[in-house]
Amino acid sequence: MAPRHARSGSLLTGTSTPSRLARASVTPLLVPVLETPTLGDREFSLLRDLIEREAGIHLTSAKKALVVARLGRRLRALGLRSFGAYYDLVSEPGGASERVHMLDAISTNETSFFRERKHFELLEDKVLPAWREAAAAGRRSRYVHAWSAGCATGEEPYSLAMVLLRHLPPHAGWHIDILATDLSTRALDKARAGIWPIEKADTIPGEYRRAFMLRGVRAKEGTMKVGPEVRAVVRFAQLNLHADSYPVPRHCDLILCRNVLIYFDQGARARITSRLLGHLQPGGYLFLGHAETLHASCAADMRTVMPTVYVRRATESGGAGGGSG
Predict the structure, then answer these.
(1) Is the pTM of this model over 0.70?
(2) Domains along the chain?
(3) 70 is annotated as an active-site residue
(4) Distance from C-alpha of 242 to C-alpha of 221, rounded to nearest angstrom
(5) Catalytic: which of 104, 177, 182, 253?
(6) pLDDT tens digits, the chain, 325 residues: what are they?
(7) Which of 105, 201, 285, 320 is the most buried (most CB within 10 A)?
């Protein structure tokens, strides 16, 4: 039997559909398709306020078409004929499961491998060499705790894992732990599966692609899968950044919350950033998205490394970096 996985292009095997089944004639089942109803201003306001209460996502009136497009699919799936009926469903106590589907539909999960490449270059060229030097001198441990907050379908934490494993390898005594969280359970399912169209490989540098990614063959041709070494250091969990507290370790060396804060209003951004910093140890790094900046209320505790990258100032009694195991 051929191996199911192999390095650099020989894996993800599957069973082909017999050609005689492919040629068989099938009579399609005709099902009436419900048209998406109009979303009135009142229903939009009700849904917008509910989404903001549940997840902190701020939707302006300019997002009305987006709500129609994304929640319209839920109406059709449920056989509902109005957005008012859908609001009645998701707002009642028994509508908790559909509220999960609603937030999944509204969440934006666009991302790519090694997005904002300068962030990863900073890690490769400055941060990780300094950590290796500090560990060799006994000034920090070889445990690295990182948090990808708003990880979408997993490209960000897997990219981070590749960089950390390459520059802080386990055979040198390093232990990598990456927590990746997102509001969307649908996105997290895709992240855990770790399979993407092969076109996604275009943004992965060649040395990382060859070392850590697997190419699909036969029935899986045209896809790629993240390798087991990378999977082993990334764990996924559902988390709502709008919550009052986060069940996350308070000694993170790295927190990536990139292109997430833009979906919140100013007040929510300040609260979320403050909570994030509560989980970043002195000497730890915070990475934001290209259109995001650190809120002024948090500036006293942080030093700017480069635009969108900040390091938490060391306390008088403590050193910088190096979480315990």
Answers:
(1) yes
(2) 41-106 (1.10.155.10), 117-312 (3.40.50.150)
(3) yes
(4) 40
(5) 182
(6) 444 444 544 344 333 344 443 444 444 444 444 677 899 999 999 999 999 998 888 889 999 999 999 999 999 999 999 999 999 999 999 998 899 899 888 887 778 999 999 999 999 999 999 999 999 999 999 999 999 999 999 999 999 999 999 999 999 999 999 999 999 999 999 999 999 999 999 999 999 999 999 999 999 999 999 999 999 999 999 999 999 999 998 899 999 999 999 888 889 999 999 999 999 999 999 999 988 988 787 888 899 999 999 999 986 544 445 655 5
(7) 285
